[in-house]
From TrEMBL:
<dbReference type="InterPro" id="IPR035892">
    <property type="entry name" value="C2_domain_sf"/>
</dbReference>
<dbReference type="GO" id="GO:0070382">
    <property type="term" value="C:exocytic vesicle"/>
</dbReference>
<dbReference type="InterPro" id="IPR000008">
    <property type="entry name" value="C2_dom"/>
</dbReference>
<dbReference type="InterPro" id="IPR052095">
    <property type="entry name" value="UNC-13_domain"/>
</dbReference>
<feature type="domain" description="C2">
    <location>
        <begin position="101"/>
        <end position="206"/>
    </location>
</feature>
<dbReference type="GO" id="GO:0006887">
    <property type="term" value="P:exocytosis"/>
</dbReference>
<comment type="similarity">
    <text>Belongs to the unc-13 family.</text>
</comment>
<keyword id="KW-0268">Exocytosis</keyword>
<protein>
    <submittedName>
        <fullName>Unc-13 homolog D</fullName>
    </submittedName>
</protein>
<feature type="region of interest" description="Disordered">
    <location>
        <begin position="18"/>
        <end position="39"/>
    </location>
</feature>
<dbReference type="Pfam" id="PF00168">
    <property type="entry name" value="C2"/>
</dbReference>
Amino acid sequence: MLARDSWWGPGRAGCWETGDRDRQGAWGAGGKGHPANPRGCTEHVPTGLVPHEVLVVPPQLALLYEEVLYTIRHRLGKPEHHHVADSQELYAYVQKAFGMDAEEHSIIMQQVKELESPIFCLKATVKEAKGILGKDVSGFSDPYCLLGIETKSQEPAHPDHKKRMKAVVKDLIPEDQIHRTQVISQTLSPVWDETFILSLNCFAIA
């Protein structure tokens, strides 16, 4: 999920310029009200002046390359052992695949670094439980589930503590990060079928 908005539009004399409401100077802003001038569209540049950080890359290709770099920069999860894990290797691979030179890559990479980070979420569905212990005098229970994301720093020191999962959730996870299902009355085999969206942005993601 990308929390940003990009658009492309034709510039003067058939040239292309880029814009983004979240940032200034993408692809070399001309400054002082002048539009960005991609390399090759130098008819608007006064004699003796060199365009500042402009690209000859077609706009659609540049936008796609930006999205690829953005995805690599903010990738989530642990790669399989036979996959490339080093980000620099991935950057080098896509740079070669897109045919970008060092200057073009550097300009777009700097632009990517200035963008907002994505919002990571985990979608979890609680389906059902079977054969839970009865807690009431009737022999049944009023079960519900608590959901939360526990970081390594929040893990209990002693493995026996993991048996007390309800206490672990309540004691180690902040209240505003805990999700709770409905209470199903008088049953030992509750069915919830409830879906929750848990945000991962409150944790450090590597």
